[in-house]
Amino acid sequence: MGQREQWGTRFGFIMAAVGSAVGLGNIWRFPYMAADNGGGIFFLCYLFALLTAGIPIMILEFGIGHKFRGGAPLTFARMNRNWEWLGWWQVLVCFFIAVYYVVVIAWAISYVGFSITQAWGDAPKDFFFGKFLKLTGGPFELGGINTQILLPLILAWAVTFISIYTGVKAGIERVAKVLIPVLFFMVVFIAIRGVTLPGAAAGLNFLFEPDFSRLLDYKVWTAAYGQIFFDLSICFAIMITYASYLPKKSDIVNNAFTTCLTNCSFSLLAGMAVFSILGHMAFTQGVAVKEVASAGVGLAFITFPAAISTLGSAAPLFGVLFFLALTFAGITSLISINEAAIAAFMDKFNMERKKATVIYTGTAAACSLLFATGAGLYILDIVDHFTNNFGIVFGGLLEVLLIGWLFNLKSIKDHVNPISDFKVGNWWLFSIKVVTPLVAGYTGIMTLISDLK
Ligand code: PFF
């Protein structure tokens, strides 16, 4: 194997890392989590989680990826011969996420087209579950592959395949440098129009007004920490891999702060865009915002189409922009999650990039067909629940426990500090050793308990 590939520029690396972090999670998951967990109070908890877990783990992952120069399995193996399996665990999580995440992107691509004619008519819910997904009665009733989704699915895989096949600098970096700035402008545009609509204020109030009575509610805190892990793409191999392509002289701490803060600002912006438009819909229907705000998949593919329809002649434009934004955000994340797995195979088997890309994306694409069946949404829900709540959380918990307690954590601090302007100190060591294991452990156990009930 030749020398490890490298990013071309610092900007390119930041765009790729932000591209991974900014994903479907920011656009549909974040607004609904905030609204459901006490609005403004959720933000405070989220900011706290960002400072005590998000940024410290990002610095850790950038630091170890950069120091040990490998995908997750190789990096962990270089830290301790017995830890390679943890890297493979995280790679497995990547695989399970990728095969369903790509299908949600395929839905978004389809909805770009539907937006032009408002194909969902007056009944976006029936349209989504019935006409579009052709949802069957349950997870065991597959009902054949939905040919409508096939073309967008192939498109999403093709873009991902080409970006990774062409390499870190010529492929992944170049795609991120175009898609992320465009994505940012699209969302700013939607947000500006959104906040100037009648009724927007009620939507924003719903999102931001703090419900202080929930400050001590553990559910709000676990939601905030859970959101931070998924949101920043940490604890599932990606950021370690991306950092392994950084040049020797890279400001690790600054890069970590920039990535985290850009991602979180983007979440805020997306939240404002979505909720101001929902506020407008509630206003036109004469109901409270609470009545129209629904959760998860439903928010993006049912509630939002209905809200867009209330924009009159501007509806096609905003529909296309919103679903294109969702598509761009999703694709750059999908690229990162596949790269994390492909890099692991290249490291392990000394495989050439092109060969590894063909084998891995071919396999993942074939498996993703399962989610394009009439039972896809049911299976997606189950896989999503287990990968997020157990796969990521326990993978992250083991990562911080092993590195924090059984590895010389100070050696990573000593690696990061000389090349960074802003130095990490005791707060960082404390976060990794104490705060993050406690919250990840608590979050994992609480979800386990509520699942068993
Ligand atoms: N941070 C990403 C998001 O918010 O959607 C998390 C992610 C999910 C990254 C899926 C990559 C991916 F394939």
TrEMBL record:
Membrane topology: Multi-pass membrane protein
Signal sequence coordinates: none
GO cellular component, one term: membrane
Annotated TM spans: 7-28, 40-64, 85-109, 149-168, 180-204, 224-245, 257-278, 314-337, 358-380, 386-407, 427-449
Keywords (A to Z) from UniProt: Membrane, Symport, Transmembrane, Transmembrane helix, Transport
A molecular-function term among this protein's GO annotations: symporter activity
Nucleus in keyword set: no
The UniProt record lists the keyword Cytoplasm: no
PROSITE patterns per UniProt: NA_NEUROTRAN_SYMP_1 (PS00610), NA_NEUROTRAN_SYMP_3 (PS50267)
Pfam families linked to this entry: SNF
Cellular localisation: Membrane
Annotated InterPro entries: Na/ntran_symport (IPR000175), SNS_sf (IPR037272)
SUPFAM superfamilies: SNF-like (SSF161070)
Top-rank taxon: Bacteria
Family label: Belongs to the sodium:neurotransmitter symporter (SNF) (TC 2.A.22) family.
Matching PANTHER family: TRANSPORTER
Protein name: Transporter
Organism: Desulforamulus putei DSM 12395
